[in-house]
Amino acid sequence: MFENLTEKLQRTFKNLRGQGKLTEEHLDVALGEIREALLEGDVNVGVADELLANIRKQSLGSEVMLQLSPDQQVVKVVRDELSAMLGKHAKPLFASRPPSVWMIVGLQGSGKTTTTGKLAKWLIEHGHRPLVVSTDVYRPAAREQLAQVAKAVGTALWPGAGTDKPLEIVKGAIREAKLSASDVILVDTAGRLHIDDDLMNELSMLKKELVPSEILFIADAMIGQDAVRSAGEFHKRLGLTGVVLTKLDGDARGGAALSIGKVTGAPVKFVGLGEKYDALEGFYPERIVSRVLGMGDIMSLIERAEQTVDRKAAAELERKLRKDGFTLEDFRDQLKQIRKMGPLEQLVDMLPKMGPLQNLPKDAKVDEGKLKQVEAIINSMTNQERHDHNIIDGKRRKRIAKGSGTTVQDVNQVLKQYLQMRTMMKQYGAMAARAKLKGLGKLAGLH
Questions:
Q1: Per residue in 187-215, pLDDT tens?
Q2: Domain 299-443 classified CATH 1.10.260.30?
Q3: Is the overall model pTM greater than 0.70, yes or no?
Q4: Class assignment of domain 100-295?
Q5: For a disulfide at 111, which of 1, 28, 246, 397, Cβ 3.0-4.6 Å?
Q6: Residues 6+ positions from 113 with CB-CB distance below 8 Å
């Protein structure tokens, strides 16, 4: 999402390297480049100009900066000011006495129903018992769509059958939540193609009846500043408590994520990073800033690993590393663990664009088919071959290649990669055993 913005900022910082000290002339050039990068990244003009004014003030006014090189000074100030602009991580709100009510609002087509399902799954994973209900009585099959979503994520649903009055539907949902001990009600409200008084009056009526803990605006990041303007209008009329940005895994330029909170006054609380119902994460401003500046998002990468890694298997791998027993079967299993963490391009996007990874091609594509091919090759080996690579001679390589639909060269390449991994595991085994990623970090290039 932030690729172009990150690339331009990195170029600006690189141009400052080698300068003896940070002068106003250098700073003016850098700020001009940063402004261009922000606007091309679809950051709101007012937000960009305010940010640049703060960066200029801090860059020229801080004596601490004298200890840093010019590029380090600007990077530090940009990081600090971006972090200040985005604010702190905003936790979701719950009522003091359940059930808490979360109203899901937004324009038609922004992804409200799908996001309602994602939020329900997120709540379940965090120990809550959500109930979902749709008040969209206007769009054909809207309530049936939510019923299918509820079934897919395994959450309770109030169908609201027998009435087409939104107020009656939510009253029934509240009664059902109390009877079923559901502690959060997710209300998937009706949308419109454009903001109008009928929609806002209905939402205001529901707000008055429900007294919601959260009023979450669903914003499609792909439409950029239009989403920001729509969120601002909803906030004026309803008083939003938060924003959920969807489709942040797409080709959006990312500016909406950086400016929507500042413009609307409502913090971004969640971000959608894919179509699956588990593709929803809390919004952590400091991690976003780190990614924008090319520093990666190692914390999110670690959290994904912790959620997907089989702890029993990790403990067994640790034992094998201590005994130098890393086999081709272990190699295959580690690749499977990484694939469970999500699309590889998302994982690569979390890696720092500096140090040993700074020269990665901008538009480098991760070929997930190669990982599947590696698995196919190892699966075509006998159990004995997977546990002792030394017995795999030329004849066996031909058989493995034929069985996996590959070539002998492909088999040779897999064996070479395995031996490189085995050497690395042996060299860094002690460190890998202590690391949270249990060896996945090494495979991802974080050594």
A1: 999 887 777 888 888 999 999 999 999 99
A2: yes
A3: no
A4: alpha beta
A5: 246
A6: 134, 142, 145, 146, 149, 188
